[in-house]
Amino acid sequence: MGLRLEHLQTLREALRTVNKDAQLDHALDHLRRHHLLPPGMAASEIRALLRVFKSNMQAARSYLPRASRIKVTLFKANEPSTGSAGDTAADWEGLALDGVDVREIPGDHFTMMREPHVRVLAEQLNECLQQQQTVLDHVRAASI
């Protein structure tokens, strides 16, 4: 969703005054008022997304990655976002033994996936895919 700190603080304060059963509906109203949800998204869809989010968080907490002989391309936002991790490139360097190619994208973790920043992300991703295709073409040609 891409909640900014000011939205989180306002929402947190508002939720303190609402009983537990009404908190999700109140939060959804807040997000709609600030145009932070896609138009027409139903509460049932949000609840389903929250269930998926919770499952993903549980899986992420229990996953222990191992270092591998791979190269990773990291598309990294050039602006910090609320609650963002430390140096993600350094984290990947410990796992991707063949190196990490860092591509900086304008925006934060959320806005880099929205206009106008998503265009830069798409261009960078396309460039990476084209480079990989060139490598694969050379490997295929050498094996013939």
Low-confidence stretches: none
End-to-end distance: 48 Å
> What is the total number of structural domains?
2
How are helices and strands ordered from N to C? HHHEHEH
Mean pLDDT comes to 86
Query: Main sheet?
Result: 2 strands, parallel
Percent in strands: 5-15%
Side by side, the strands of the main sheet go 1-2
Structural class: mainly alpha
Count, helices: 5
Spatial shape:
elongated
Radius of gyration, whole Å: 20 Å
Number of strands: 2
Helix content: 40-55%
Question: Which short descriptors sum up this protein?
Answer:
144 residues, two-stranded parallel ribbon, 2 strands
In short:
This protein has helices spanning 5-16, 23-33, 43-62, 88-93, 117-143, and strands at 72-77, 100-105.
Description:
The chain has 144 residues and is mainly α. It has two domains: 5-62, no CATH class; 72-143, no CATH class. The chain is 53% helix and 8% strand. The chain contains five helices and two strands, in the order αααβαβα. The protein has helices at 5-16, 23-33, 43-62, 88-93, 117-143, and strands at residues 72-77, 100-105. A two-stranded parallel ribbon has the order 1-2. The chain is elongated. The relative contact order is 0.10.
